[in-house]
Amino acid sequence: MLVSSIKGYFEGRNIILLTGVLADKEYEEMYSLIAPLAKHIVVTKPNSSRGLSAEKLAETIKKSNKNITTESDIKKAYIKALNLTEKDDVLVCAGSLYLIGEIKKTCLGGY
Length: 111
Known about the structure:
GO terms for molecular function: acid-amino acid ligase activity. This is Mur ligase C-terminal domain-containing protein. By secondary structure, the protein is α/β, with parallel strands linked by helices. The protein is built from 5 helices and 4 strands; from the N terminus they run H-E-H-E-H-E-H-E-H. It has a 4-stranded parallel beta sheet, with helices on both faces. The radius of gyration is 13 Å and the shape is globular.
């Protein structure tokens, strides 16, 4: 669903992906599909005991995209992703709902 949405809505635009996932999910297949779409990927760890480390996820993603930055702190990861985003680029935050909730709370003021 996310892959088709990115292709449908943002075709021709650079994608910066901010992501993190839980270790008990089938993340290898997911990232083999989405990672090639991104210009750069910022990897972090969701605030959950089940969160996969940023370093381990980065190793998986490197099979499909070498342009990766890791940052264990979610707020710092969000700032890094914003700094990588240029005019007309799209910042996509995807992965664990724990990650998205933390981005909403700490980076977007709860919106």
